[in-house]
C-alpha cells in the first residue's frame, strides 16, 4: 500500500475512534446518514496549461460509523452521469440501480452486527449503456459498527 494512502487511512481510523468514543455511553440511537457517489478530477500541467487528464469516483463519505443496536436510515444519492448502485452485502442491503444525476434510495436497518463492512457499487461497468465507470473496483466504502461493550 502506498505510504500516503496508508497515512490517510490511519488518520481516518483515528478520527473514527475519537468520534466513536464521544458517543459510546449514549446507547442505541436513530442515525440518519447520507452517502453519495463523488467524483474527483486529475489535473496535469501540459505545456504550461492545466489539463483534465482523468477522473475518479468514490463514495462520500467513504466511512460511516454507528453503534451496535442503532437504527440507521441511510439515504444513497447518485449525482453522477452514469448509473450506480449501493450494495452492503454484510447487511444484505441493495439500493438497486440509481439513475444518473437524480438517483436516490433510502435504506433502513438495525446495526445488529459489530464489525467493519464494505459496501460497493454493484453495477458492472458498461459505458455504452451508461452503467458505472471504468474505475468501478475502487468505488468502495466502509460501515463500522462499534460494539457497545
Key features?
Immunoglobulin-like; 149 residues; three-stranded mixed beta sheet; 45% strand; disordered N terminus; mainly beta
Description:
The chain is mainly beta. It has one domain: Immunoglobulin-like. Helices cover 14% and strands 45% of the residues. The chain is built from one helix and nine strands, in the order H-E-E-E-E-E-E-E-E-E. It has one helix at 3-23, and strands at 30-46, 49-60, 63-67, 71-78, 87-88, 93-94, 103-110, 115-120, 140-146. It has a four-stranded mixed beta sheet, with no helix packed on it. It has a three-stranded mixed beta sheet with strand order 3-9-8, with helices on one face. The radius of gyration is 17 Å and the shape is elongated.
* Proportion of residues in helical segments: 10-25%
Number of DSSP helical runs: 1
User: What is the count of structural domains?
Assistant: 1
Radius of gyration: 17 Å
For CATH, the homologous superfamily is named as Cupredoxins -  blue copper proteins
Structural class: mainly beta
Order of the strands making up the biggest sheet: 2-1-4-7
Order of helices and strands: HEEEEEEEEE
Q: Which residue ranges are poorly predicted, with pLDDT under 50 across at least 5 consecutive positions?
A: 3-25
Shape summary: elongated
Query: What is the CA-CA span between the terminal residues?
Result: 32 Å
How would you sum up the major sheet?
Answer: 4 strands, mixed
**Which CATH architecture?**
Sandwich
User: For the residues shown, what is the average pLDDT?
Assistant: 86
